């Protein structure tokens, strides 16, 4: 699979309210994740609240990389995920806090010695994950689901990881929406 650059078209309004193209080109923020070699975050856009402000303001993807969406906001990104390597699976858990720190949320990592995958994590958000190219395995606490191109996951704040066991790159689209745990779920998570 050839991973091609992502073209982003951003629209806006001119002074008379006419719809115009503000930007048309490659993404300004594409970040390799150092502790997970081959993984690339392609930041597309984010919103800071709901309702989302509609304006011709600055590009919200510039600045530090952040895993979760902004409070009351959303985030859209594409992630290129390489195949899991034996070295990564054997020694990856020790580096995952650092990997999550690089993507702005060290607290998201939930990996323990008995975790089913070294990238287990959780965010208080609703995430839509779409397999654009390749295959991916969604790993949960006690189950796994093999995903193929076109499959969509609605991930509702659960402990999970993405395992690429296909032997080739996978590209996924993620749309993250800030969330808040139901009190019963929050209590159950706190007692784990």
From TrEMBL:
It holds the Pfam family Cupin_2. Residues 119-175 form the Cupin type-2 domain. SUPFAM superfamilies: RmlC-like cupins. InterPro entries: Cupin_2 (IPR013096), OryJ/VirC-like (IPR047142), RmlC-like_jellyroll (IPR014710), RmlC_Cupin_sf (IPR011051). PANTHER family: CUPIN TYPE-2 DOMAIN-CONTAINING PROTEIN, SLR2101 PROTEIN. This is Cupin domain-containing protein. It comes from Noviherbaspirillum saxi.
């Amino acid at each position: 699979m050839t991973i091609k650059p992502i073209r982003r078209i951003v629209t806006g309004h001119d002074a008379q309210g006419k719809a115009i193209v503000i930007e048309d080109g490659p993404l300004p923020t594409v970040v390799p994740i150092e502790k997970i070699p081959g993984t690339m975050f392609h930041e597309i856009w984010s919103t800071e609240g709901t309702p989302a402000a509609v304006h011709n303001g600055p590009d919200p993807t510039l600045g530090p990389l952040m895993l979760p969406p902004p409070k009351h906001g959303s985030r859209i990104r594409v992630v290129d995920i390489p195949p899991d390597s034996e070295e990564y699976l054997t020694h990856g858990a020790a580096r995952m806090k650092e990997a999550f720190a690089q993507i702005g949320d060290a607290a998201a990592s939930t990996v323990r010695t008995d975790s089913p995958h070294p990238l287990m994590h959780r965010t208080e958000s609703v995430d839509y994950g779409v397999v654009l190219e390749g295959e991916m395995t969604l790993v949960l606490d006690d189950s796994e689901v093999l995903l193929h191109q076109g499959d969509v996951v609605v991930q509702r704040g659960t402990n999970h990881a993405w395992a690429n066991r296909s032997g080739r790159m996978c590209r996924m689209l993620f749309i993250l929406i800030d969330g808040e745990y139901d009190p019963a779920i929050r209590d159950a998570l706190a007692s784990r």
